[in-house]
Amino acid sequence: ADVVVLRQGTTEVAAEAGTVVSCTADVLVSRRASEASPPREIRVAVIGNVDSGKSTLVGVLTRSMLDDGRGLARGKVFKHAHEESTGRTSSIGQHNLCLDSQGKILNDTQFRNATCGDYVKKASKVVTLVDLAGHEKYFRTTAYGLTGHMPDYA
């Protein structure tokens, strides 16, 4: 297991013999990734209005790169050529954000869905971001993404 001290402090407590100083700490204990146990997974549906930056957010988080203001990060998560040309998501995309036991992001700019299994093997936690369409035209696809992919959070 990995141990990370999040916060430390001291408090004074009154006792019969006088004032006693005690130390306190908030500690995060995380299990390390192992082949014997799968990583913990949280599924988050990214929903919102059209052109609100959902796919850009997913691209920035899962590809560990900043957007250039012209859709560079968003382009990394699109599935279809027409999504690239219109700049709008029309399908359901699932993208993994892999974290180690200390909470550090394992994804890098070379991350691809084809090599996702290699990242998941090293991860203690996996956040699956379900990227959904925002345009009214694709409402049925978005509704299916919310019901069929069973996100823990939306």
Summarize the topology.
Elements: E1 2-15, E2 18-30, E3 40-46, H1 54-63, H2 72-75, H3 81-86, E4 93-99, H4 116-122, E5 125-131, H5 139-148
Parallel strand pairs: 3-5
Antiparallel strand pairs: 1-2, 4-5
Strand content: 25-35%
Which strand order do you get reading across the main beta sheet? 3-5-4
Largest beta sheet, briefly?
A: 3 strands, mixed
Describe the global form. elongated
Question: Rounded to an integer, what's the Rg over CA atoms?
Answer: 21 Å
Count of individual helical segments: 5
Taking the alpha carbons of the first and last residues, their distance comes to 30 Å
Low-confidence stretches: none
Kindly state the number of beta strands.
5
Helix share of residues?
Answer: 10-25%
Helix/strand/pairing class, anyone?
A: alpha+beta
Overall mean confidence score, pLDDT: 84
In words, what does this structure look like?
By secondary structure, this protein is of the alpha+beta class. 24% of the residues lie in helices and 31% in strands. The chain has helices at 54-63, 72-75, 81-86, 116-122, 139-148, and strands spanning 2-15, 18-30, 40-46, 93-99, 125-131. Strands 3-5-4 form a three-stranded mixed sheet, sandwiched between helices. It has a two-stranded antiparallel ribbon with strand order 1-2. Strand 1 (2-15) and strand 2 (18-30) form a beta hairpin.
Summarize this, please?
By secondary structure, this protein is α+β, with helices and mostly antiparallel strands. The chain contains 5 helices and 5 strands; from the N terminus they run E-E-E-H-H-H-E-H-E-H.
